[in-house]
Amino acid sequence: MKTKKFTILHSNDMHGDFLAEIQKKDVGKKSKLIGGLSLLSGYINKVRHEEENVLYVISGDMLQGSMIDSEYKGISTIEIMNYLAPDVVALGNHEFDYGLPHLLFLERVANFPIVNANLYIKKYNKRLMNPFLIVKKAGFEILFTGIITEKVMDSIKLDKLVGSFITLEEASREVGKICNAYKNNDIDLTILLTHIGFESDIELAKLLKREWGVDIMIGGHSHTILKHPKRVNKILITQAGVGTDQIGRFDIEVDDATNSIVKSSWRLIPINSKLADPDEKLEGFIDSFKKKVDRKYNTILCKLSKKHTHPKREEESSLGNLFSDAFAEIAECDVMLVGSGSIRIPELGPLVTLKDFISCFPFDDSLTRFTVTGFSLKKIFSHILRNENRNSEGECYQVNSKVRVVFSSKSNLLKSLEIDNAKIKDKQLYTICLQGYHIQNSKDNLNVSEKQLLKAGNSKVVTTSVQEILEEYLRNHQNISKEVEGRLTYLTT
Q1: pLDDT digits (tens, 9 = 90+) for 311-345
Q2: Could you read off the pLDDT of 130-188 as tens digits, one per residue?
Q3: CA R_g for the chain
Q4: pTM to 2 decimals?
Q5: Which CATH class is domain 3-290?
Q6: Residue 384 and residue 399: Cα distance in Å, rounded?
Q7: Domain-by-domain residue ranges, the chain?
Q8: Is 3.10.450.50 the CATH number for 298-491?
Q9: Counting beta carbons within 10 angstroms of the beta carbon of residue 427, is it exposed (0 to 12), middle (13 to 18) or buried (19 or more)?
Q10: Secondary structure letter of residue 483 according to DSSP
Q11: N or C: which end of the chain has fewer CB within 10 A?
Q12: Do residues 344 and 360 touch, judged by C-beta distance below 8 A?
């Protein structure tokens, strides 16, 4: 029996998490640095030196989440990733944040291969990216392919040329096409890089035929932390949380005769200064970007009365309330829905620099006010608050202070919806304000079409730049404070 040992390191959802942080310790104990690409690179370099056959892969969302990334529209991120030299990368939804043409430019900047099997140029039935990669190492051949999340379709909806086989059933068939066409007798290991969320990974694994021979699924998007891989349909499924504070590590032994894994172990490795020395050259390269960004954006924007937080996108937060109330006041609307995913950091303040603000709210967009019936509002809230949406993969929202919603998690039903302490009436008209992204994808995210939003008339574009009006609002509202006050209430009994 001819076998070979391999080490597969994997990251996902790094989101421009370039810099290490100091982990606070109890009095008398020494603090240590955690995370950051310099320490991550140091660990990868260490493993590459210690082990014979090492692969490093990334399952999407390298981009978005830091000022260094947004200031350079992802070019800085790709240049920095070139230092890490991943063997293969799959697309995540945030790779599309700067537009499809810019993504194709970033692909040319990358010194590493990017794979995706189910994104197509519709008119010509041609895949947009390389659908697979065969890596040859130590006389063995490893097949990689990639699958993207439905959120990509949201991001590129206005581009009519591009489409995707995006449901799990369609995605499974795309994986089957790749495996049937390219998994010959010489392929020893097949790895699927996904960016669809952990629960969807499990469902996709159930749909894959065993004859296709997928051995491992390495995922992203849901930021899931695991203690051990999930085994479904004889496929090992794993993910490595979010950011650069940790990295996943597979140590496997592959049999060349049977093209199967005969031995495997997996760990989630915490990245800190005790694990490996930082990559000083990469640290200097990142610092060259940081200095430019700091000079431009380290000016004080405002001071809040206290630290505001946004710990979970599925729940009401003080930071979400602050932004929702600001937009509602500017838009003069009854209901303001702010996408929870628009708020990219878990806390802000008390002192807020321009850099802090843009890191927190990096997505610029329009803001439009619509007039809708109370019936439509009930339909919207029933959809966005349903149990299956309130997970790490759903599109959740923060709301303004006029709104009070009670939802039963037990029965999965909307119990009450009030505006200004009055229950809404089905036939009465109300105003609702939405970001442009959520208008374009209103059917999927809100369960009402854009046509339905426009039906009652009286729509108005409040602003073409939510970022600019929020910046001005904070600048002119010093020492503001918001609390979590029960705008969104979930009954469990």
Answers
A1: 998 999 999 999 999 999 999 999 999 999 899 88
A2: 999 999 999 999 999 999 866 555 555 545 555 555 678 888 999 999 999 988 888 99
A3: 24
A4: 0.78
A5: alpha beta
A6: 12
A7: 3-290, 298-491
A8: no
A9: exposed
A10: -
A11: C
A12: yes
